[in-house]
C-alpha cells in the first residue's frame, strides 16, 4: 500500500533520512517477527536456521543476478559492488549445514520466498526498484545482520565468520559504518524526482513486508524450542 504523509509532517532533510523514517515501522515489524526473536534467543533448531539460510540463498541469487545487469546503469550502477556479494558464501554455508554441495541444488524456496525473489527479478527493468531491494538487504546485513551472525555462531557452536555463518562476514568491508555512510550519500545524490523517490520508498516498505511473510512461514514450519545447546 502506498505511504501517505499529512501536511503537518516535516520532510526529512535528505532522501536517505526520508527512506529510513518512512520505512522504519515496517522494518521493526520484520525484525520483531517471532521467528527472528526466537533465533536471537537461541530457540530455533539448527534445521530451522538452515531453512532461513536456504531462503536467503534464493533471495540473494535473484538480487545478484539483477545486479549483474545493472553495473552500467547510470542510476543503479554506483550501488553495485562485488564487496557485497553474498550468494557464494550462502552456498558454502548450506553445503556445510546440509553435509555436501550436491544437496544445495535440491533445495526449494518457501512460497513467500519465491514471491519475493520474483519481485526482485522484476526490477531488472526498474533501476529504482532494484536499489530499493539492494538497500533493504545489504544495509540490513551490515547493521543488525552482523549481530545476528555473532549470536548464531554462539548458539550453534560455529566459528565466527566460518562455515555456517560466512554469510554474515564481509571480508572486504572491515568498517561497515563508513561504507554505509557512503551508500546513503549515493542515495541522496541519485537523480530521482519526488515521485520516483516515493516509489523507491514504497518498494522498500514492500520488501520489509515480504520479509515478514517469510519469517511467518519459517516460524510455522520451525517453532521455537527451549534454548539450543551450542
Would you give an account of this structure?
- The chain has 230 residues and is an all-alpha fold.
- The chain has a single domain (15-221), classed as Heme oxygenase-like (Heme Oxygenase, Chain A, Up-down Bundle).
- The chain contains nine helices and no strands.
- Helix 3 (46-68) packs antiparallel against helix 9 and helix 6 (127-141) packs across helix 9.
- The longest helix has 28 residues, at 194-221.
- The radius of gyration is 18 Å and the shape is globular.
- The model has no long low-confidence stretch (mean pLDDT 93).
Can you give me a brief rundown of this structure?
This protein has 230 residues and is mostly helical. The protein has helices at residues 15-31, 34-40, 46-68, 87-98, 111-122, 127-141, 144-156, 176-189, 194-221. The chain has one domain: Heme oxygenase-like (Heme Oxygenase, Chain A), CATH 1.20.910.
Query: How many strand segments?
Result: 0
Radius of gyration: 18 Å
Number of helices: 9
CATH class placement: Mainly Alpha
Organism: Jiangella aurantiaca
Protein name: Biliverdin-producing heme oxygenase
GO molecular function: heme binding; heme oxygenase (decyclizing) activity; metal ion binding
Keywords: Heme, Iron, Metal-binding
Top keywords for this entry?
mainly alpha; Heme Oxygenase, Chain A; 9 helices
Amino acid at each position: 500500500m502506498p505511504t501517505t504523509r499529512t501536511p503537518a509532517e516535516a520532510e526529512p532533510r535528505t532522501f536517505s533520512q526520508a527512506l529510513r523514517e518512512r520505512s522504519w515501522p515496517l522494518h521493526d515489524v520484520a525484525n520483531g517477527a517471532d521467528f527472528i526473536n526466537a533465533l536471537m534467543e537461541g530457540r530455533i533448531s539448527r534445521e530451522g536456521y538452515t531453512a532461513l539460510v536456504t531462503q536467503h540463498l534464493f533471495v540473494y541469487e535473484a538480487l545478484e543476478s539483477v545486479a549483474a545487469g545493472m553495473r552500467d546503469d547510470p542510476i543503479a550502477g554506483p550501488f553495485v559492488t562485488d564487496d557485497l556479494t553474498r550468494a557464494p558464501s550462502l552456498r558454502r554455508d548450506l553445503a556445510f549445514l546440509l553435509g555436501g554441495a550436491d544437496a544445495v541444488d535440491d533445495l526449494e524456496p518457501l512460497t513467500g520466498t519465491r514471491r519475493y525473489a520474483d519481485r526482485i527479478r522484476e526490477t531488472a527493468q526498474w533501476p529504482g526498484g532494484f536499489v530499493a531491494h539492494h538497500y533493504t538487504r545489504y544495509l540490513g546485513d551490515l547493521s543488525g545482520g552482523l549481530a545476528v551472525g555473532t549470536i548464531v555462531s554462539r548458539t550453534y557452536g560455529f566459528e565466527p565468520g566460518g562455515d555456517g555463518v560466512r554469510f554474515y562476514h564481509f571480508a572486504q568491508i572491515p568498517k561497515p559504518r563508513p561504507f554505509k555512510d557512503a551508500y546513503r550519500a549515493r542515495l541522496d545524490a541519485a537523480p530521482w524526482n519526488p515521485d520516483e523517490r516515493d516509489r523507491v520508498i514504497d518498494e522498500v516498505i514492500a520488501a520489509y513486508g515480504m520479509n515478514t511473510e517469510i519469517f511467518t512461514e519459517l516460524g510455522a514450519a520451525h517453532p521455537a524450542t527451549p534454548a539450543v545447546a551450542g
